[in-house]
Design brief:
Layout lengths: L1 E4 L2 H5 L2 E2 L5 H12 L8 H10 L4 H10 L2 H10 L5 H7 L3 H15 L4 H29 L6 E3 L2 E4 L5 E4 L6 E5 L7 E4 L9 E5 L4 H8 L2 H15 L1 H12 L2 E2 H8 L3 H13 L3 E6 L2 E6 L1 H8 L5 H6 L16
Parallel strand pairs: 1-5, 2-6, 6-8
Antiparallel strand pairs: 1-4, 3-4, 7-8, 9-11, 10-11
Length: 323
């Protein structure tokens, strides 16, 4: 059990976002693959198992040798595989990270825009609870197994101990694939990290089937977006569709360097797809209406289309966010 202890200041800083990101969802999905008897995701599981191909061995080795949640998730937080994980899986650190990125690209990204719309609806529902019932109602209704006993939020966890936010804002994020656990606390033990409480918000059967029924169409749509602006720039746009982010937050989320993020946001800003505001030492990037229209497939005029940069083909494309 983890106990998140709030001060009054901490309670005022709580924010709700739509997702902890595609990599986190991929790790939650790996956990679900280890327990495949889930009627809500049966179509997704069948499709992913068919498409794994040569990746199947590495993915199954990871699932067999470690608990994706929490072991692999916390390993990825530090951007390196632990000695225990590498030894038990027979894979190197780079092979583990590449396998997870490849799995994310194969199993999560083809439907990411549709998943994101589902998660945005979940975020909006929680936002209405916050607006109408206050922060205590919000914390008290995250999940039946997550208990709010003011000023402490009790989260079922294999790890023990108290978490004090010390002025850091807690981000609450629903998860589509987190179905075997009630919630997972991410980055809580990093002094320089912003804690995220990802809580289970699985779909009902009808909503789940709707997420996968147009897999091929959405796969082509994401490929078209990547071909137009480049894979990392497409990933930046998708990340900013969720929430405005700093350069550092984008770098952490997409697992590329801050320098590379600055380069890509500069191109996107010049094309009118995002805007950037500087406040002291912080640079905050926000999706513009043109960027929103590009993601949603709305009609763009020829002048706007001409301003969108061509894809950068010179960067490494092995990881979903690296080109």
């Amino acid at each position: 059990m983890r106990r998140i202890i709030f001060t009054l200041e901490d309670l005022t800083k709580i924010r709700v976002k739509s997702t902890a990101g595609p990599i986190a969802e991929a790790v939650f999905a790996l956990e679900m693959l280890s327990r495949p008897n889930n009627v809500y995701f049966s179509n997704w599981i069948q499709r992913v198992n068919t498409q794994l191909g040569s990746r199947a061995h590495a993915i199954r080795a990871i699932i067999k040798s470690t608990r994706p949640v929490p072991d692999l998730l916390f390993t990825l937080e530090s951007s390196r595989a632990s000695e225990k994980t590498t030894r038990s899986s027979g894979l190197s650190s780079s092979e583990i990270l590449a396998a997870v990125d490849g799995f994310c690209r194969l199993a999560v990204m083809p439907n990411w825009r549709r998943m994101l719309r589902y998660l945005e609806a979940e975020r909006d529902a929680r936002g209405r609870i916050l607006t109408t019932g206050g922060v205590e109602r919000l914390l008290g209704t995250l999940h039946p197994q997550v208990k709010w006993n003011p000023p402490v939020l009790e989260v079922p966890d294999e790890r023990e101990g108290d978490v004090r936010l010390n002025g850091r804002s807690l981000l609450l994020a629903p998860s589509l694939f987190l179905v075997n656990k009630s919630a997972v606390l991410i980055d809580a033990d990093r002094a320089d990290g912003q804690p995220i409480l990802s809580f289970a918000s699985p779909p009902d059967l009808k909503a789940a089937n709707g997420l996968w029924e147009m897999w091929d169409e959405y796969d082509r749509g994401d490929q078209a977006l990547s071909a137009l602006v480049g894979r990392t720039r497409a990933a930046v746009l998708l990340a900013l569709a969720d929430t405005s982010s700093t350069t550092g937050e984008l770098a952490d989320r997409l697992r590329v360097s801050a320098a590379a993020i600055s380069q890509h946001t500069g191109v996107l800003r010049a094309a009118g797809l995002i805007s950037t505001r500087r406040n002291r030492n912080m640079v905050l990037h926000t999706l513009n209406p043109l960027g929103t229209a590009l993601l949603s497939g709305d009609t763009l005029d020829s002048a706007h289309l001409a301003a969108i940069p061509q894809p950068n083909r010179g960067l490494d494309g092995r990881r979903f966010s690296a080109s």
